[in-house]
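Fig. S4 source data, part A: sequence.
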Amino acid sequence: MKLYVLDGGRIEILDWAVFQPDAGPGVRRWLSDTCYLIVHPRGTLVWDTGLPGELADVPEGRTIPDIAVFHVREPLERQLAAIGHPADRIDYLALSHFHPDHVGNAGLFTNATLLVQHDEHAAAFGDAPGDFGFDRDTYESLRSRATTLLHGDHDVFGDGSVLVKRLPGHTPGGQSLLVRLPDTGPVLISGDLVHSLDNWTGRVVPRHNCDPGETRRSFDLAADLLAEEGAALWVQHDLDQQAALRHAPDYYT
């Protein structure tokens, strides 16, 4: 089994107090937007799809007023092709949630089965996706995609090596991914359970999370899981941590 770390873009947050209420006014912070590929003897899985690849042609990035500036250096599609796993040959696509910075290239995975919590899917394709920070235009192609609706944790390949973990609160059906690597050891990939390592240390609940109580319960579940597994927590948006990891074409085993 191999785990590849992929660059899904970078985000300049224009008001870090949205994610860290005690940050003070006007504080900016850069975040990574990491994606991952798992190559398993029984198939391939991509976890999250980052920002749209076409932003690589926009040097100044795309600004969401008062929120963030989105940047892409290398399209995800090109990164996958370079390591011999083009997007249209991926078997499974699992999204931590449906916010725009995680679904930007979802339409590329035309032959993948989508793995998503049932309530996340219902919110994304319901009458008011905007209430959860979703933009249906960014993932409409997934409406007709082969989909497995989850009602909790899910063993992707049936051998316990790759587990989707239900950890809601940021959105109705937020997910993280536990990967039990033979050599590296277990890794819990965060999704947006937290947005930085200091958020995790302080158990900070961003003010835009849909359910603060569920977020705190998910913090406790994740902490218990990390302790039981002896797992490392990889925070997808923590730029310093993610930059220090080996990126594709290198990989973890």
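Fig. S4 source data, part B ends here. The radius of gyration is 17 Å.
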